[in-house]
Amino acid sequence: MVPEAGESNERRRGSERMSRTAKITRTTAETSIAVAVDLDGTGSTTVSTGVPFFDHMLEALGRHATLDLSVSATGDLDVDAHHTVEDVGIVLGQAIAEALGDKVGITRFGSSALPMDEALVLAAIDVSGRGQLHYAVELPIEMIGTFDTTLAKEFFIALAANAGLTLHVRSLAGENSHHIIEAAFKAVARALLQAVALDSRVGGVPSTKGSL
């Protein structure tokens, strides 16, 4: 279930562990974004950004990472979709970071090589606390509906930086922009699912430094 305001990291009634949820809002002169996330959800999504292809990608991200995800965004789409896509990445990253809390017990690493028809994309994640994107995705610069294909990278930059993820995304094959970008979102989703998963064998934070 997507959390209500004020529920972030509160203990669930009758549960022995903390609820890994967050709700973040951010308003600027360019956009107004509200994101709610539950890392231990079932993949239920409610997404509205005004950019249909981007909505489709966020729904795929939530579904395949089994996040309960709510995204509501309004932005200056009369200019273009850049600010909306980037700012959703910022706020979603912040929500994931808040929901992760102290990161005790997480698996930390995850990776996925995901096919979609002729496209094949590799994504790998380290919940390192050092937000950075390494992106090698070859695709034409074109519009998919109202979504500029260059905006996929902008989203992942913002997501990685604000969630504190070391994120690698690399295309291994593909010709169709829709297929490549969708494979990228789904590969990131599957890698994220692994990385944030709780492992009962992990004592404390999975780092020799003692913190992430």
Report on this model:
The chain has one domain: Imidazole glycerol phosphate dehydratase, domain 1 (Ribosomal Protein S5, domain 2). The strands form three sheets. Strands 1-2-4-3 form a four-stranded mixed sheet, covered by helices on one side. The protein has helices spanning 52-64, 82-100, 151-163, 177-196; strands spanning 21-27, 31-38, 45-48, 68-75, 109-116, 119-126, 132-136, 143-144, 147-148, 166-173. The model is unreliable at 4-16 (pLDDT under 50). The radius of gyration is 16 Å and the shape is globular. It is α+β, with helices and mostly antiparallel strands and 212 residues long.
What's the story with the biggest beta sheet?
A: 4 strands, mixed
CATH topology: Ribosomal Protein S5, domain 2
**Strand order across the biggest sheet?**
1-2-4-3
- The CA-CA distance between the termini, in Å, is 27 Å
What percent of residues adopt helix (DSSP H or I)? 25-40%
Write the layout of secondary structure elements.
Elements: E1 21-27, E2 31-38, E3 45-48, H1 52-64, E4 68-75, H2 82-100, E5 109-116, E6 119-126, E7 132-136, E8 143-144, E9 147-148, H3 151-163, E10 166-173, H4 177-196
Parallel strand pairs: 3-4, 7-10
Antiparallel strand pairs: 1-2, 2-4, 5-6, 6-10, 8-9
Helix pairs in contact: 1-4, 2-3
